[in-house]
Amino acid sequence: MKNIPAQPASPLRRLLLRLAVLLAVSGVLLLVLAAIIWFDNGFNRGIVYQPAPEPIPLTAGPQVGVNLYQLHLEPDSAVVTQTLQMVQAMGARYVRMQLPWEDIEIHGPGDFEDRRNIDTIGIVSAWDKYDRIVNKADQLGIELILRIDRPPLWAREGFHNESFFQEGLLEDPNSTGPPDNFADYGRFVSRVVERYEGKVRYFQIWNEPNLKNEWNWHTPRPESFVDLLEVGYHAAKAANPDAIILFPSLAPVDGLDKRAPMTELDYLDAVYRAGGAAFFDVMAVQAYGLGQPPDEHRYIRLLPYGSTWTWNRFIDARADVSRVVLVREVMERYNDHATPIWVGEFGWNSAPDSIPPNGATPGANRSAKSKKPPISSGISNAPATSGPGWA
């Protein structure tokens, strides 16, 4: 039988073979690189191994604060006193509370009388209950942080009467938003800061402006918020140059909810692009644990296929305690290295497993399942977050 010599491979075939080998090697290298990035994201991102060369202002700690959001609604002054004494006894230094504009300058500009309950208590000063809280906290050595928001109806009548705000009220009866004239807000901030000079240093301008129901049901506009922030900042500093202004805690969102069409990270990025960094002294954030353990460090994860999985949401940027690191990354992108971060709201769902998913659940406490202290999470590892943490 005659032997037929093997034909040499054609140039095209050799080229295709080389390309196949190169593609295979490239694929393996890409997989290795992806694995390195994925695990680095999970274990190292946001962790500081060496302290900053210079201390960041307003981060001497550890310090603890308590949110007494509705303390102003307590009619019994003895209960208010007892509450603040309990805060003092637990060693907390700060109390963050709301100071709603609509509860003080109620009936019109410059009118600080409360005539809503004439038949029962008569006409009273709208300042009285806030004065009592401020004086008692000052006596106990507690630093108040006053969150100034919620304009009265007379100050936002134009927005209030818009059809889509009225529709929003049906979904959230507690909806609010900025005033028709930002100068009115500035005058009120000035009045508050001036009144409590020497007793209150910390003031927070607004709350969650990245939500429609906090912004008159308009699509949140970071540039417009920067205008409001600038007015509030200058008003406070003119009334008391020693006042410390806190940025409002943004709601951690994925941008897919109709009330929050952009993530808080995109919103914050736009605030910095609009020059907002000049108008606050402390960055405030929310750091809820939600369903994640306190030692969770993965800032991005693949969502499991199921009820929350969609084609435009198969990667989840985590909204848990580690989200603070992503906020810090936005700040440092704009060279804002010296502004501290304070955690304004912080906690875990403490409900037992026996409560159905749609049942009422008590929040603000660490889950009983978690055996590690919450501060062992990415919060303590992120730079500039050693200011107050909040129960």
Structure in a nutshell:
The protein has 391 residues and is α/β, with parallel strands linked by helices. It has helices at 11-43, 77-89, 118-121, 128-139, 157-160, 163-171, 182-195, 222-239, 264-273, 323-333, 378-381; strands at residues 63-67, 94-100, 113-114, 124-125, 143-149, 202-205, 244-246, 283-290, 300-302, 315-317, 341-348, 388-390. The longest helix is centred in the N-terminal third of the chain and has 33 residues, at 11-43.
Given the C-alpha coordinates, what overall shape results?
elongated
Q: Give the oligomer, counting copies of the same chain as homo and different chains as hetero.
A: single chain
Strand count: 12
In spatial order, strands of the major sheet run: 7-6-5-2-1-12
Helix content: 25-40%
Low-confidence stretches: 359-387
Please report which band the strand proportion falls in: under 5%, 5-15%, 15-25%, 25-35%, 35-45% or over 45%.
Answer: 5-15%
CATH architectural type: Alpha-Beta Barrel
pLDDT averaged over residues: 83
Instruction: Give the N-to-C terminal Cα separation.
Output: 91 Å
CATH class: Alpha Beta
How many discrete domains?
1
What is the CATH topology assignment? TIM Barrel
Structural class: alpha/beta
- Rg, nearest Å: 26 Å
Q: Give the topology string: H per helix, E per strand.
A: HEHEEHEHEHHHEHEHEEEHEHE
| Total helical segments | 11
Q: CATH homologous superfamily, by name?
A: Glycosidases
How would you characterize the largest beta sheet?
6 strands, parallel
